[in-house]
Design goal:
3 domains, Rossmann fold, globular, five-stranded parallel beta sheet, 23 helices, six-stranded parallel beta sheet, homodimer, alpha/beta, 590 residues
Chain lengths: 590, 590
Amino acid sequence: MILDKINNSKDLKNLTVDEMTLLADEMRELIIKKVNAIGGHMGPNLGIVETTIAMHYVFDMPVDKVVFDVSHQCYPHKILTGRKDGFTNPENYFKYTGYTAPEESEYDLFKIGHTSTSVSLATGVAKARDLKGENYNVIALIGDGSLSGGEALEGLDNAAVLNSNIIIVVNDNEMSIAENHGGIYDNLKLLRETKGQAECNFFKSLGFDYLYVEEGNNIQEMISAFEKVKGTKKPIVVHIHTLKGKGLEPAEENKESFHYILAGTLDEKPETASAPAVETYTSLTREFIRNKIKSDKRAIVVNAGTPGVFGFDKEYREDLGSQYTDVGIAEEHAVAYSSALAKSGAKPIFTVMSSFIQRTYDQLSQDLGLNNSPLTILVYWGGISGADATHLCTFDIPMVSNIPNLVYMSPTNKEEYLAMLEYAYNQNERPVAIRVPMTELVSTGIPDTTDYSQINKYKVVTQGEKVAILGLGNFFSLAGEVKEYLRSELGIDATLINPVYTTGIDVELLENLKQNHELVITLEDGVLDGGFGEKISRFYGNSDMKTLNYGAKKEFTDRVPLQELYERYHLTKELILKDVKETLKEKVCG
Amino acid sequence: MILDKINNSKDLKNLTVDEMTLLADEMRELIIKKVNAIGGHMGPNLGIVETTIAMHYVFDMPVDKVVFDVSHQCYPHKILTGRKDGFTNPENYFKYTGYTAPEESEYDLFKIGHTSTSVSLATGVAKARDLKGENYNVIALIGDGSLSGGEALEGLDNAAVLNSNIIIVVNDNEMSIAENHGGIYDNLKLLRETKGQAECNFFKSLGFDYLYVEEGNNIQEMISAFEKVKGTKKPIVVHIHTLKGKGLEPAEENKESFHYILAGTLDEKPETASAPAVETYTSLTREFIRNKIKSDKRAIVVNAGTPGVFGFDKEYREDLGSQYTDVGIAEEHAVAYSSALAKSGAKPIFTVMSSFIQRTYDQLSQDLGLNNSPLTILVYWGGISGADATHLCTFDIPMVSNIPNLVYMSPTNKEEYLAMLEYAYNQNERPVAIRVPMTELVSTGIPDTTDYSQINKYKVVTQGEKVAILGLGNFFSLAGEVKEYLRSELGIDATLINPVYTTGIDVELLENLKQNHELVITLEDGVLDGGFGEKISRFYGNSDMKTLNYGAKKEFTDRVPLQELYERYHLTKELILKDVKETLKEKVCG
């Protein structure tokens, strides 16, 4: 194998183009095998193999530097930079992250997983180089799908006036995760069709020099292109046309499903990658939305470039027609756009993944909260997980809950969720976000008739005494376990409460608890700092009521097994019991 | 006066162009008089008078709808929409806000004050119109300076594919608040120079139809332009060239100082609008930065289009040369760019206003925090104020403090501030934000030798007993007053603590307080929800220690006098004493 000779990017220099072409096949085989074995980003990595080889062949890495956008296309880069053992040996499949990671290699500059950051970061790297009087190439490698993000557009506008060396490689595979949306994509199409010759050129309009490469999967073509721009003294965009999923037939044909695949996908029928068979909170949401769209012409669902997260497959999206807007990767616009839709009498539902709602703080505050638009926001995947540090979903509660006017609700079962969806959709008073449960679907079988317009009214599920347990959303079931455990272990008949709202305090209920309770326990599936529990502790601060807040520590965890995190954060009934014992023992009064 | 005949936009329809030209002069006079009397945005409003008149003449407001960007150019619009009494009668000068406000008039769609939002909002308004099968014009009026914001660029990319009526009026006065920065401005220049004929057109590259108007301050020209585009079925950009500050000589000559002026500026020499005479925290910062720039080629200061906030006047900026970057209104890019600068061995200092750091949550988390880049961030104007709802600076503590790896410090005097600046600048471990004090400058005269690398180590200023007062940043002096008041009124010798860090807990110190304290009081100059005090209350939740947290309520206040807010939030020594008495009385134990 050619790969045997390659331990880092310098070893490429001795290869012929034919050898590098063989190397590309070898790398592709490794990527397909590994990704199918453990899951991961298939399409993006298969499409960028030749470009990565050519880049490492032409440039002098790690002196020359590359910043990957999202970095879900960095597998070939990792293979060529001393980490091939993570691909050749199945025992090492989990040794390296699926994203660039400076702690793994000097060839990786940043820890990245959110989109549209590469151009800004590369501009900073280049400016630092200039300040220090150094001299090397700085490359940003960004996919066409990421171009629509505000951070990328701000970055391009500024990179263009850097007035020194920066090379923006735009990897145009004609796809975002799903299809692209936005005017810029018509321009990319025009540029592809004219082989880069069209006068109306988005990149040139910003002031970039521009080079088009039709065959981005041809190593010789890419080598020639990179040799042309190496050492440039001016900002230049190299617009390359590549094939997403190249070399794997189902991935080439079904680009969206093969953007990211679960382990074993190739061993089954690709179709199974789509809609779930059993009823889940996702399928409930899909049905709710579809029914609203069909029965109410004012209804519209908005998302920002990640329809797969919500189970919005192609057929489903086409069925929604003009009442579906994918704004592309543009979360800020998505919130402002949805706020205006709501303010103008439409009935928008904005669906977003917890990790990505982080991109909209000011829009949630100014465009939405300040204007009090009756928008429904559905937040997916919120909760502690074993995810990469780049995709944690533990910060949405602190981020959303401390913005005025926003109401953030956490359902605990199917009937509650459906009732909250109806409330959020039908009301006209305020923005309402709902944290879609991350748990298995729980059904009481009894329709929920709660009046959710009574904001911050908590639900007492079972009235007890001495200890009250507030189990928010995903952790309501844990609260129930703790209640039972306190009974069996301490003979305490605890009060079980479903607080429903993360954004506020039920003053009357909390006051009443003082009468026959000594301790209030809060459980939330997110970081504690700035979250729900702290609001409860503040409320009881001037009283004799004791409080114990449970949730995640304020930290970036990176692929730590969930159970290990639960132990670390005392999110088990045994560890909570231990704390309760100590707290009640310590308690002098009552 | 022509204006006497104008009570709302419909009354314009009967005027001749000559009458409207006279009207423009009358309106200009009113604006100059009012803004000089109470302060406000002078340049932007003077430049947009003719455009506003023509818009209200041609379109059928309020059926046709306009969304202003930032809306600091809405005074002429207010005069023409039933609110002229707020300009003609000095007694009503404070009757209406300086921004669009739906509660004031049906002609105002949104409450707006942050930039770059109009295109996204207008796109939502237009889409709602289409969903409901209605038919009217939707206009977004955005200044050239706001175009560089990610939200605006995301909005343009999406507005371009709306496939129905939307009119984007780009008000090009060749200025942001200061001069423009970014590649897009070279294209605007090219378009002006070619009277809109250049093939390389940023807006066309996104797919917009495009119309250029050279004389944006000529009513007839603007009427003709608007009549051309009225009823368009396709997204179109109307690029108009106007003169910022038109009609007021000093404002035309000194566009930056006259973007926003303080009351009475015209009665003095305009120069006085710039650098302060006495020493302030702002002047200290200017000097600190200048010294670093002069002594360290790695040093660089970054800001996002608001240099005036930091006292970076033209001369100062030119003096910094290539070690100064104004990215334009592009806060997301500013953080990622600065993070990369820091990661690459430069010494960046990012200066930002509290209200605008809200635009960077995900960049603070992902580009900066996750990568732990040693960036220094200086946050200005943080604290409770009587500002417009759109420019509140009370949310930075909750927003910044709950992101991992970030350290957020609050100095209480000159010497501390300088020592923190040195620490933040020289260390290489982590991102450090400093909240520049909003108080009068306080100097101890004694150099501060604290080792600030001991993160979360609070300072015990005076050791007492029973009650401990944690006075954060701006409120440290109030904490001192409360301490004295508790002594004189209750004979309590309270412990006074300067917590320094908003981002964490000094476990050892807080533990020790348990020995001879019953109550811990926290004071912070920002919203309580998700802030500093709640972290203290959570810490003491399972103990007998009582806590009282003081700060702002989670709400959008709108030009409420500061003293009234202090009363509302119990931020006076008298009200705090009252709470302390009740709390200590309630306390059964100890």
